Amino acid sequence: MNPHDPRQHVDPSLHPLLDQIPPKVFSLDTLVERRADILVMLQGAPPEPGAAEAEEHHVPGPGGRGTVRVLVWRSPGAAGKLPAVLEIHGGGYVVGEAGMSAAEHRSLVAETPCVVVSVDYGLAPESAHPALVEECYAALVWMAANADALGIDAARIGVRGVSAGGGLAAALALLARDRGEIPLAFQHLCCPMLDDRTCTDPDPNPHSGHFIWTRASNHFGWASLLGAEPGGEGVSPYAAPARAESLAGLPPTYIGVGSVDLFIDENLEYARRLIRAGVPVELHVYPGGFHGFEMAPDSPLAQQARRDHRAALVRALGG
Q: Would you call 187 exposed, middle or buried from its count of C-beta atoms within 10 A (0-12, 13-18, 19+)?
């Protein structure tokens, strides 16, 4: 084997997924195509008969300006006030849509009594920081203000996201902590995109970031969100949560990430800082997992990660 081949560090059961997914470049020139890829993904198999259907709402936007689209799933037949999670989709801050994980949300509400609210925040570069996190906060405010109508237990609302969605979930947890209006019960972060300085690290991890979401794509995503070159001075922690001076007072946290994911180092550092700040942390590192490896249907590593992610989320919801 070529000692310089990054695939040697990938779990062998994930190689078929790499063969199925061609490298994709994220840039201004390819953005329309990348967003179209999401629409194709949404045209998947229809839900099973009797599965929960999403309710669409348009909620007041930040500062009462405009509206933000959200999709709401509730456990069929469940009575009373239920725990809830605000789901924030991934996509590098530049692609994605609230319904892209609909199958997962239907499965979750079928498995444990809960409410899932997925927010359709504006995408960069058309929308830049702070618009994205403020729109997520507007959805959170709406959930809390309408808890009775939605059948939500306002004392058991958490946030969850994958990749850029995980970064926004972490940023939202910081924002909620600092504004002191809505206490969060947990944050569930899967390979979260937390630190713009990863783009300018002078000594990057040589084994990470070679697949699915690369260093070039990461630079484009952060530059689009910030409206400026990543890694500079004065970046808000509500854009890049790793910039926060203190992580004290944040809710119990789950973090799962692959060992060759581009975000491995920033995720480990965030977990370390959370633990030092007295925040309960459940951390999983999956050896040989690249960004998005959980998509592999038959890989034992991916299956384990999906089980761990779901089990932690169900526990956080009190299931």
A: buried
- Tell me the backbone φ, ψ of residue 249, rounded to 5 degrees: 85, 5
All domains in the chain, ordered by first residue: 8-32+53-316 (3.40.50.1820)
Which distant-in-sequence residues (6+ apart) come within 8 Å of 235 by Cβ? Answer: 196, 226, 243
DSSP designation for 73? E
The reply to whether the predicted model has a pTM over 0.90 is yes
CA 238, 240, 245, 248 torsion-angle sign = positive
Is the pLDDT higher at 58 or at 49? 58
Mean pLDDT (whole number) for 180-191: 98
Take residue 292 and report the two structure tokens written for it: 């998005």
156 alpha carbon, distance to own chain's centre:
19
State how far the alpha carbon of 161 is from the alpha carbons of 11, 50, 156, 169, in Å.
24, 26, 17, 6
CB within 8 A of 178, min separation 6: which ones? Answer: none
User: How high is the pLDDT of residue 132?
Assistant: 98
Least Cα distance to 215 among 198, 192, 193 occurs for 198
Q: Which amino acid belongs to residue 168?
A: L
Pair of tokens at residue 276: 């030092």
Query: Helix-strand-coil percent breakdown of the chain, rounded to 5?
Result: 40, 15, 45
Between CA 292 and CA 256 the distance in angstroms is 11
Count of residues for the chain?
Answer: 319
d(CA 98, CA 259): 28
**What are the tokens at 126?**
């058309």
Both structure tokens of 34? 């990348």
